[in-house]
Automatic annotation (TrEMBL):
Specifically methylates position 2 of adenine 2503 in 23S rRNA and position 2 of adenine 37 in tRNAs. Gene3D superfamilies: 1.10.150.530, Aldolase class I. Belongs to the radical SAM superfamily. RlmN family. It comes from Bacillus songklensis. Keywords: 4Fe-4S, Cytoplasm, Disulfide bond, Iron, Iron-sulfur, Metal-binding, Methyltransferase, rRNA processing, S-adenosyl-L-methionine, Transferase, tRNA processing. This is Probable dual-specificity RNA methyltransferase RlmN. The lineage of its organism: Bacteria, Bacillati, Bacillota, Bacilli, Bacillales. InterPro entries: Aldolase_TIM, Methyltransferase_A, RlmN_N, RNA_MTrfase_RlmN, rRNA_lsu_MTrfase_RlmN/Cfr, rSAM, rSAM_sf. CDD domains: Radical_SAM.
Amino acid sequence: MEKTLIDNETKEITQKPSIYSYELQELEKWLVENGEKKFRGKQIYDWLYKKRATSFEEMSNLSKDLREKLADHFVLTTLKTAVQQTSSDGTMKFLFELHDGYTIETVLMRHEYGNSICVTTQVGCRIGCTFCASTLGGLKRNLEAGEIVAQVVKVQKALDEQGERVSHVVIMGIGEPFDNYDSMIQFLKIINSDDGLNIGARHITVSTSGIIPKIYQFADEKLQINFAISLHAPNTELRSRLMPINRAYKLPDLMKAVKYYIEKTGRRVSFEYGLFGGVNDQVEHAEELAKLVKGLKCHINLIPVNYVPERDYVRTPKEQIFKFERTLKDHGVNVTIRREQGHDIDAACGQLRAKERKEETR
Ligand code: SF4
């Protein structure tokens, strides 16, 4: 968990990990090893996740000595809000600045069933999906688990003012979560903990572009969280055009890994299928897709894509979206069309960050 971090204010390079990267048991272990009582761990967790403290000094029931020790060993990650946009449908999009100056996006979506937050796992992304603005500047660095946790805490703090809570988490923001696997798993454990934010496993969804070895590893973890695959094409040729990762991890092998996951966990898989006008949205694509997922315990999420200024793709007309859906249904496939949110803000993944980067380089 040791990381080299640059403090933006002091420009000092530190090796301090974020305290949000620690599970309660790990924190208790650290306290005991440093001559402190184990029960202090729960007190600290309370400050972090219930009182949502933003500094160690605030932790008034800890001795000054312990507060200093904590500050010497850890960073209490606070994200600076660089931009905040609110849509007319209540969707909130945040551009947060990390303490090395990099920026990340986090989105809060309002649903009937609760408030869902979409978190980022990497600064940029190296996967190179042709429809995605997040990958334009490449991968800068992985986020530490605590930096992912801090996004949830920060948005929860904004919701506190409205007496609401973050009830659902989707790991679908900037980055490929399976490319930062250990931090993502640590993040899951921390937000799922009763002593922390207590977000139920079944309320958490992780999505991958298809890093096959990690899918097998993830299946073996036997977690109760929801699992989604960014599919976007019904055959390997088209998928390689849309998502270069398919050249390394081919569709037939991906489907084998998905089958393994379903068998191992007994859980249903979701396939995310973005509809790109004239590219993958024809009836024959829907028929091919139905054949591909036949017999699998799965669900298909159709996503009418937003126009991304940096890319050439255009929206699929409404009637075509319904035709595509109907074809899948006629083949007995479980399918829904994702409700669009944040239409009047930079809602597509990476758009806000890409816009800010462009403005910075002007
Ligand atoms: S869609 Fe996801 S995996 Fe693909 S480039 Fe964008 S952030 Fe990376």
